[in-house]
Amino acid sequence: MNRSQARRRAAVTGIGVVAPNGVGTDQYWKATCEGTSVLAPIDREGCEQSPLRIAGLIKGFDAAQFVEERILVATDRFTHYALAAAGLALADSELPVDAERDADDPFGIGVVTAAGSGGGEFGQGELQQLWSQGPHHVGPYQSIAWFYAASTGQISIRGGFKGPCGVVASDEAGGLDALAHAARDVVRGTTAVVVGAAEAPIAPYSMVCQLGYPELSTATDAKRAYLPFTEQASGFAPAEGGAFFVLEDEATARARGARIRAVLAGHGATFTGASRWAESRDGLAHAMRGALAEANCAPEEVDVVFADALAVPDADRAEALALADVLGKHAARVPVTAPKAGIGRAYCGGSALDTASAALCLEQGLIPPTPNVSGCAYDLDLVTGFARAAAPRTALVLSRGLMGSNSAVLLRLGSES
């Protein structure tokens, strides 16, 4: 890394959210801080007979308000969520994306997304057309709408973004890994990167694919479907949605008068194998140490942890032990929260939503609670019941994937950098 690169740091200047508890950061953050749980019975057509009964569903989302008709018909629901969240993040950042910018720096803005499954609902519909009516009834967009990279392509085409583009396929942890990927692009000289993840796994075919996960909760009571860090933990409830961000070089963003919502200071990632939750202790700890080292952050300087919170006893125990391994005695004192317990785990979109929550937590001085949970079975200061007023300067966000990826991101308060 040369000296000019060393001076560049990736700052979050825009946040956009599409989640089961709200569209837009204001709605999302209000519901998150209130500890509102929106987990509910799945009422999507074709899903009635599934043993998966409870999930976090996005209600009342009108894709036509965010996405042009010509794009809507060519894309899956997961891309609709991504386009909406990316658009909200760009608006929040007030980043110039007009023709004048294009002329000065046509390759200045890139796009990075993460995806776990792609456009399953769209693909299912086209395959049903194929087998029921024949190949002439299959549209040309079947070739692209299902693809896990579709959201990256559609966001870049829609915005005319010609900078570095990519998609990260690293399991649920991909939401954090995509941020790290984008941050490296910024450090290397890219003006800005639109980055994030959104998923839409609540559809018949997608749900059948998930049924092989032993970590999935089959509870029928929404209040008991996702209880991380408790003795009653019996798996997680899935969700749809996600979050997007605009990352820019911190100094450049400040020079244009942008609001620095957070600084992405460090990242670490490892791999420990599918469902090997005991082994995830070492892998997650190593990822945390990598994030802290890159951020030059001492363990006792971590002010809040947004936990992975899988709600599988072996996994929850491994996460609690990993925190103790890295943070020492501070692990029992630092506030830990898992707001996703109220909306479900949106796979790659889940860690992106946690990052949005962490940035807003730093900005607003409020640690959201873990919904539906009243106690903790581990030596953690789990925030439950009500949001907790605080003055955090650093937030550690953790994520693990069902296939074995582990990732950690360290955010710093924007005004502290």
Write up what this structure looks like.
The chain is built from 14 helices and 16 strands. With 417 residues, the chain is of the alpha/beta class. The protein folds into two domains: 3-255, Thiolase/Chalcone synthase (Peroxisomal Thiolase, Chain A, domain 1); 267-411, Peroxisomal Thiolase, Chain A, domain 1, CATH 3.40.47. The longest helix has 17 residues, at 77-93. The protein is globular. Residues 1-5 have low confidence and may be disordered. Residues 7-413 form the Ketosynthase family 3 (KS3) domain. One of its GO terms (molecular function) is 3-oxoacyl-[acyl-carrier-protein] synthase activity.
In short:
With 417 residues, the chain is α/β, with parallel strands linked by helices. The chain is 35% helix and 19% strand.
Straight-line N-to-C gap: 20 Å
Overall residue-averaged pLDDT value:
94
Beta-strand residue percentage? 15-25%
Biggest sheet architecture: 12 strands, mixed
Shape category: globular
Instruction: List low-pLDDT spans.
Output: 1-5
| CATH-assigned fold name of the largest domain | Peroxisomal Thiolase, Chain A, domain 1
Number of continuous helical runs: 14
The string of secondary-structure elements, in order, is HEEHEEHHHEHHHEHEHEHEHEHEHEEEEE
Level-2 CATH architecture of the largest domain: 3-Layer(aba) Sandwich
Query: What's the Cα radius of gyration?
Result: 20 Å
Question: Could you say which structural class the secondary elements and strand pairing correspond to?
Answer: alpha/beta
In which range does the helix fraction lie? 25-40%
